[in-house]
User: What shape does this take?
Amino acid sequence: MHKVGIFGGTFDPIHIGHLLLAEHTCEVLHLDEVWFMPAADPPHKDYQPLATGQERLEMIRLAIEGHPFFRLTDIEMERGGVSYTVDTIEELQRRHANHAFSFLMGADMVNYLPKWHRIDDLALRIEFIGVQRPGTTLHLNELPAHIRDKVKMVEIPLIELSSTEIRERASQGRSYRYMVPEPVHQFIQRNDLYESKS
Assistant: This one.
């Protein structure tokens, strides 16, 4: 089986923290590939992306270009609407029967797993890769056993970086040059993506 880690998120914008997380996880767990999957309409976030779906897809494409183990999947964009992971995984397994999928997430989302839509069905289909940064509080023992048994934890180096910070810096005219890959930096500037509208 071809081992694939699905890395979902809004990626508004993708930044070097995302890429380092994917690279480190791929190496530690011996994944064959990591697929970046931007959400069309994430159910767990009140925040609506500032960049369009096409702009976020293009930024990911630019960020991972040339990497041998990174791929982009637009499956949730293609489907549109609220993106429930279980629906996406069912569709991916229909399309790629010889792939074993895992789902990458931050430790904070691991704690939230029991609230996920159709979590019992999802836990039967895939493993979850919980990425723990130093200082993150994890409540793994509080998860139901059938979910806990499907979680693998990976510790990554501490990188204090977020898409929110990059958007704020861009809107304030402050530098974020080395927080994103250079092609992404140029794309954001060229399209004035996060420029303050006031």
